[in-house]
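R.M. (postdoc): so does anyone remember the format we settled on? I'll just put the structure tokens first.
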């Protein structure tokens, strides 16, 4: 007997339909799986047989079972096909009505006792299902809420194989899961960290506000314990609130990566990889490419603590996503594109020992050691960081004072207002923030009057700022002007922007 069951799998961060064909015939007793299965798919043979038996059904142990996963040229991985293969075997045996089973798509991993375990990547699978003619899916209970986010499909959760067969044969009723996406999205938006918890550091807070308002990457330089990590971890709280479309984009990526904890991501991501991370883990890739940290930080913050400690080849792979907002990975079977539009926040010590310029401790590093340490960050990467600031250690008086600091909510209001100005400015130009302006757009939107031109000329000459600082300063000045609700860049805006180029001072 032959049975064909509908299923789906993941390719990159997109769902892909797969036909699970099961043929049971007389011959040497065996089970074979074809269609480019990986090791996890091949091992499903040893899960499906006991799962069927332990669920109270007969397995055709005395016959030859051939399972084909079509299309044959697409690499199949994971445990997505346990449930559809089991249903296909039972349909070929006449236990499950084939016409009834053909109304649904099936996804799920089977335990040896027939229980269904959740699989990752359900949201992109559900999105793809909404584009197909079949709109019904049977999947594990733990995946139901995530799939139900997609409105155009019908989601039927089952806890085990026996319940699934009972539903298909009409012996058991299963209520479809319906999710109010808007209510779910609005009920969970809350940040536990707030800038009001950070004492002092007014200069650093202002620089971070400018960076967030204009989408400028920022580098903080300061001694250990100065508060760089504390400041960075609170940046998501002043980013504009997520839109539903942005939340779905993030949820899709996190679902494929297997790190989704709830049905919908409602907070902007904050990713802080360790400096020992590999280039593939950071950028994404593998035999079957998976999203890396830069994609997991999409629409959020990527924090690189102790930037010079990262391997140089790891840092160099950041250049493409910082420039293009996406990661392109090519393989023999095709090309994948992962979104990676994030705000990069980095921190570093001023020298190898960390105490150069600190008022409390003495630095013992030589000049050559300090230059070698700073040169670990390449010029092309540094060129993509608009703001460099120094974060000083706080004196005891500031740490002990009880004055209430400005909360994140108030800072976020100013950021959102500045971003609205930029959205209107760049309408139809393909960008959204000042930090993403090209050279031609800088000339168009960052014009300087004579007074500003003279100020910038003096800064370039007297402070010995590098040539790369020229355009960066104008972009940052444009953002400061937007925060000030000014149509033109004024000398005070330019003067503040000049302060944010610490590493360009020779």
């Amino acid at each position: 007997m032959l049975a064909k069951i509908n299923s789906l799998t993941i390719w990159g961060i997109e769902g892909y339909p797969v036909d699970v064909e099961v043929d049971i015939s007389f011959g040497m007793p065996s089970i074979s799986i074809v269609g480019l299965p990986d090791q996890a798919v091949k091992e499903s043979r040893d899960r499906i047989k006991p799962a069927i038996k332990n669920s109270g059904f007969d397995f055709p142990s005395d016959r030859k079972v051939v399972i084909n996963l079509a299309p044959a040229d697409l690499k199949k991985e994971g445990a997505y096909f346990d449930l559809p293969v089991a249903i296909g075997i039972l349909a070929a045996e006449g236990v499950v009505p084939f016409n009834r089973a053909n109304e649904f798509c099936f996804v799920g991993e089977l335990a040896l006792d027939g229980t269904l375990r959740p699989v990752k990547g359900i949201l992109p699978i559900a999105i793809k299902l909404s584009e197909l003619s079949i709109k019904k899916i049977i999947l594990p209970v733990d995946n139901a809420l995530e799939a139900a986010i997609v409105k155009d499909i019908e989601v039927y959760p089952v806890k085990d194989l026996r319940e699934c067969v009972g539903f298909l044969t009409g012996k058991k009723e299963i209520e479809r899961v319906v999710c109010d996406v808007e209510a779910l999205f609005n009920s969970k938006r809350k940040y536990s960290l707030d800038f009001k918890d950070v004492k002092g550091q007014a200069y650093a807070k202002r620089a971070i506000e400018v960076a967030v308002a204009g989408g400028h990457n920022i580098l903080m330089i300061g001694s250990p314990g100065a508060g760089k990590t504390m400041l960075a971890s609170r940046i998501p709280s002043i980013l504009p609130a997520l839109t539903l479309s942005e939340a779905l984009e993030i949820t899709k990526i996190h679902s494929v990566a297997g790190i989704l904890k709830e049905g919908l991501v409602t907070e902007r991501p904050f990713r802080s990889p360790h400096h020992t991370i590999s280039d593939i883990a950071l950028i994404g890739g593998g035999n079957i490419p998976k999203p890396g940290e830069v994609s997991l930080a999409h629409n959020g913050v990527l924090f690189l603590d102790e930037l010079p400690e990262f391997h140089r080849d790891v840092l160099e792979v950041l250049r493409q996503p910082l420039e293009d907002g996406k990661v392109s990975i090519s393989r023999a079977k095709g090309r994948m594109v992962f979104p990676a539009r994030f705000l990069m926040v980095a921190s570093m010590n001023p020298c190898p020992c960390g105490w150069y310029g600190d008022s409390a401790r003495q630095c013992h590093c030589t000049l050559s050691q300090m230059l070698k340490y700073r040169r670990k960050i390449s010029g092309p990467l540094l060129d993509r960081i608009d703001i460099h600031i120094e974060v000083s250690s706080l004196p005891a008086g500031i740490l002990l004072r009880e004055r209430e600091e400005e909360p994140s909510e108030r800072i976020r209001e100013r950021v959102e207002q500045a971003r609205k100005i930029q959205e209107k400015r760049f309408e139809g130009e393909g960008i959204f923030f000042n930090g993403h302006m090209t050279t031609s757009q800088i000339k168009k939107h960052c014009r300087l009057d004579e007074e500003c031109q003279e100020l910038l000329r003096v800064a370039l000459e007297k402070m010995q700022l590098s040539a790369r600082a020229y355009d960066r300063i104008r972009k940052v000045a444009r953002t400061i002007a937007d925060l000030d609700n000014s149509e033109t860049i004024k000398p005070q805006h330019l003067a503040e922007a000049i302060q944010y180029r610490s590493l360009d001072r020779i």
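R.M.: ...and that's the designed sequence above, right after the tokens. Also worth knowing: The radius of gyration is 28 Å. The domain at 195-408 is CATH 3.40.50.300 (Rossmann fold).
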